[in-house]
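Pasting as-is:
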Amino acid sequence: QVQLVESGGGLVQAGASLRLSCTASGRTFSTYVMGWFRQAPGKEREFVAAISNLGFNTYYADSVKGRSTISRENAKNTVYLQMNSLLPEDTAVYYCAARPGGGLASKIFDFSSWGQGTQVTVSS
């Protein structure tokens, strides 16, 4: 397993942008499919985006498609989530997750390692 640490969350106004980062420990980062999930108060954790191990393929939830971009820098063991045109409904704790091998996935049980999360709050 890898250890994941997220950063970049904060309090912003609607329409603003944020870039979340997630840095992983270990030397095998390039073998992991990486994903972002989020959990709003009182709601279940939901999928946001995923990226293949070498970054060639991405997959997004409909709720963020067109407003968000997931990317990665394997040399830095880091995956990013650029979020634009933020909405109040984007308010949540955002979690980074790692899937050891396999293809793109969007289910919580497909990912074996999780970070502690970073809070994103969007005010109207």
